[in-house]
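Key result, reporting period 2: structure in, sequence out.
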């Protein structure tokens, strides 16, 4: 930014504009449009069938909200014990404690 020389501006009959406060924004009236989100039922039904759904269900059920690590191998290592615990609890609920202990022995 150039800083004008005050005496030269006075000779030309102009003012020093660099000291004036500048307008920060420009406001104009615009029409506001409200959009309502109406999901496509077919797409929603298809999303429920995707492979992501079991992961979200298991992670929510086991209270494992976010992955703590980055990278495929590390997240696989994080996911494995979560699914192992989920499968063990499901087997326990389906078989019962005595039957599960017999199978494990």
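The corresponding designed sequence is given below.
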């Amino acid at each position: 930014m150039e800083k004008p020389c005050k005496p030269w501006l006075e000779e030309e009959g102009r003012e020093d504009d660099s000291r004036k406060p500048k307008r920060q924004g420009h406001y104009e009236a615009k029409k506001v449009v409200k959009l309502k989100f109406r999901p496509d039922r077919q797409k929603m039904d298809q999303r429920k069938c995707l492979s992501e759904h079991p992961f979200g269900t298991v992670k929510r059920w086991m209270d494992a909200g976010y992955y703590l690590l980055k990278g495929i191998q590390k997240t696989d290592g994080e996911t494995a014990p979560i699914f192992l615990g989920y499968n063990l609890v499901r087997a326990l609920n389906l078989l019962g404690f005595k039957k599960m202990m017999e199978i494990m022995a």
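The mean pLDDT is 79. Helices lie at 6-12, 41-49, 52-61, 72-95, 97-104. This case is discussed further under Risks and Mitigation.
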